Amino acid sequence: MRARRLRTTLAALTALAVVGLSGCGGGDDTASPGSGTSSAGVTGTVTVFAAASLTESFTTIGKDFEAANPGVKVTFSFAGSSALATQINQGAPADVFASAAPTNMKVVTDAGNGDGTPTTFVKNQLVIAVPKGNPNGVTGLTDLTKPDAKVALCAEQVPCGAAAKKALDAANVKVTPVTLEQDVKAALSKVKLGEVDAALVYRTDAKAAAADVDGIEFPESAKAINDYPIILLKNAPNRTAAQAFIAYVLADTGKSVLTATGFQAP
Amino acid sequence: MALLIPATLGMLFLVLPLVGLLARTPWATLPQRLTEPGVLSALRLSIQTATLATLFCVALGVPLAWLLARVPFPGRRVVRAFVTVPLVLPPVVGGVALLLVFGRRGLIGSWLDSTFGITLPFTTTGVVLAEAFVAMPFLIIAVEGALRGSDTRYEEAAATLGAGRWTTFTHVTLPLVAPGIAAGAVLCWARALGEFGATITFAGNFPGRTQTMPLAVYLALETDLEAAIVLSLILLTVSVVILASLRDRWISSP
C-alpha cells in the first residue's frame, strides 16, 4: 500500500516537473529575442486570439508557421469572438485577433485597439449538424420545425447565433430551440453527445467533427455567410512576428489549410 | 498586531472586487435595466430552482449526513469522500458526468426517455439537478458536523424511555441539530444560486426555462458589459442579504 502511494506521488511529481519545464521552455522563447535562426528574423511568441471555429485550421497553421520560422512559438486562445473582443479591450496581451464576424472586430477597432484596418481572410457558411448517419433523415431547415425535434442554436449574441437567425429569417422558418449555446463548439458538442437532434453550426465545425456528426447543407445558408476578419493589435507585444503570422495566414500557405477545413476564400 | 496586516490584506482581496462592481454600476439606468423582462425571468428562475434544489438536498442530504455521522459501517470514509467530491470537482465536470448519466443517451437517461418519454437536459428539472449535485455536499458537511457535535446522551435517554428509532430521530435528533440543518440549507441555497458550470453543461441555456442569473451574466458579457454588471449586482445583493441575515445562526452553531 505504502509502496503504491509512493509510486503515485513520484508519478505526480514527475508530471509536474515535465509541465513545469515545458512551461519554462515557452517562456524562454520570449525572453531571448534575436536567438532565432529564422530567415525572416522572426522570433519570440506570437499570441493569437481566434474565434472558436478557427480551432482546427489555426492550430495547423500555427504548427506550419513554427516549422517555417524556427525560434517562433505561436500560442492560441480560442473562444467566442465576443468574449475575446472583451478580453482584448480589457487589456489582454494579444498580438493578433481573428474574429468570426465583423461586428466583434468592430468592438475592438472602435475601442482603438486595432492597428490599421482588418482584412477579411475567409468566409464560413452554416450547415445543419446531425448525429452520424442522420437517423432522423433531416434534409433541410423545415425538418427542424417538427414539434418533437430537439434543436440547439447559438445565442444571438455570438456570431454563429446571429448567422443562424439570419438564415432562419431568410428561409421564413420558425425553429424553437431547446437551448441557446454560448459558442459554436458548445452547440456542436450537444449533437455529438446525442442530446439534441440537430444544431446550426459552421460547415468547418461539422467537418472537423465528421467522425461523430454529418453536416447537411441548406440553400438559405447562402444568405448568412460570415466574414472572418483578422487584425494586428495596437498593443501587440511582438509586432514583427505577429505581422509575419498574418501574412502567412493570408498567403497561399494559410489559405490552403483554411479551404481544406471547409472555409471559403473571401 | 502582526496578524493585522495580512488579515486586512485578506479582507481587501475579498471585498475589493465587490467594490469594483459597485463602482462601475450604471446607477442612472439601473431601474430601467432591472425591469427588463429577461432580467426578472432569470432572477425568478434562479430563486425557484435554488429553492427546489435546497429542498431536494435537505430531503436526501440530512438522512445521508445522519448515516455518515451515526452509523459505523465499513468504507464510511470512502463514502464520505465520494459524497463530498462535488465540493472540489470543477462544476463543468459535474455537468458532463450528469449528462452521461441523466442525458438522453445516458445510463439512466436513455431508460427514462424510452420508458417514460422523460428527458432531463434542457429542462428546469435539469437545472435543479445540476444545482443540487453541486450544492448538496455543503448541506451534508454542515449537518454531519452538527450531528457529531451534538450530545448523543439525549438520544440514548429517549431510547431507554421506550422511543423507537424513528421517534428518536424526529423528536430528539432533528431538533438538536436544527441550527446545523438551517446553516447547511442556507449555504446550499447560496451555492445553488451561484451555480454556472454544471448548469450550462447539463441543462443548457434557454431564457425562462434554463437561463439562470449566472448564465444571463455570462451571455450579457458577450455584448453588454453594463448589463452584466447590473445582473451581477443583483446576484451579489441577494447572496449578501441571505448570508448576512442568517450569519449568526450558522456561524455560531457548532
TrEMBL record, chain A:
Any GO BP: molybdate ion transport
Secretion signal span: 1-27
Record-listed molybdate binding positions: 53, 81, 184, 202
GO MF terms, alphabetically ordered: metal ion binding; molybdate ion binding
Protein origin, superkingdom: Bacteria
Stored Pfam families: SBP_bac_11 (PF13531)
Keywords: Metal-binding, Molybdenum, Signal
Family to which the UniProt record says this protein belongs: Belongs to the bacterial solute-binding protein ModA family.
PANTHER family, per the entry: MOLYBDATE-BINDING PERIPLASMIC PROTEIN, SULFATE-BINDING PROTEIN
Protein name per the record: Molybdate transport system substrate-binding protein
UniProt source species: Micromonospora parathelypteridis
